[in-house]
Amino acid sequence: AQTVTQSQPEMSVQEAETVTLSCTYDTSESNYYLFWYKQPPSRQMILVIRQEAYKQQNATENRFSVNFQKAAKSFSLKISDSQLGDTAMYFCAFTQYNNNDMRFGAGTRLTVKP
Amino acid sequence: GAVVSQHPSRVICKSGTSVKIECRSLDFQATTMFWYRQFPKKSLMLMATSNEGSKATYEQGVEKDKFLINHASLTLSTLTVTSAHPEDSSFYICSAREDRGQETQYFGPGTRLLVL
């Protein structure tokens, strides 16, 4: 079974600084997708970034980028120029290609301090 | 694009009554939708996968007779909590997956259910 591990329950960062959230996963499959979702205090889950496993290039969305290490089964999220609005719970998620199951990590609570 | 609505956002009901929650994909078709439950400060727990025109697939330990799911169209899935009890109080979140692939799920804003 696929598992997703987020080893940092809580993190904090100063506004305008950079922070990296860690995520590792376990799978025997070669085709899959990885995601980072953000859940702010409103509790609305928002897609931050997506990575297809077959792509070697790391995904980037504005201030958000990932470091995808397929061999190490690692998928970290880097947030640059942190903003107060980045304060949220961040969930790493995994799903196999053509599979319904999406597995979530336990989440990392990020606080951006002014 | 890729907006999912969920209604109601909050509901309070008496023990023994039934509550229906609607999940709609507003700007895309979704053959597959998902229902999650989230406990305070916890991750999402998948309850069931809803497939348009067929029976839902429930996760182990989820009572299908208690949590009725209907996916009548490509844009609407409903979850009915039957004979609700206080232990059913929780935050329920739906998501919808675009039919075009890429396996991305887009989430509704959630429904907070309180059973008195």
Q: How would you portray this structure in words?
A:
The complex is a heterodimer of chains A (114) and B (116). Chain A has 114 residues and is mainly β. Chain A contains no helices and twelve strands. Helices cover 0% and strands 54% of the residues of chain A. In chain A, strands 2, 5, 6, 10, 11 and 12 form a six-stranded mixed beta sheet that branches. Chain A has a four-stranded antiparallel beta sheet with strand order 3-9-8-7, with no helix packed on it. A two-stranded antiparallel sheet of chain A has the order 1-4. Chain A starts with a strand and ends with a strand. The relative contact order of chain A is 0.34. The mean pLDDT of chain A is 94. In chain B, the strands form two sheets. In chain B, strands 2, 4, 5, 6, 9, 10 and 11 form a seven-stranded mixed beta sheet that branches. A four-stranded antiparallel beta sheet of chain B has the order 1-3-8-7, with no helix packed on it. Chain B is 0% helix and 53% strand. In chain B, a hairpin with a 5-residue loop joins strand 4 (32-38) and strand 5. The model of chain B has no long low-confidence stretch (mean pLDDT 93). Chain B has no helices and eleven strands. The interface between A and B is medium-sized, with 23 and 21 residues.
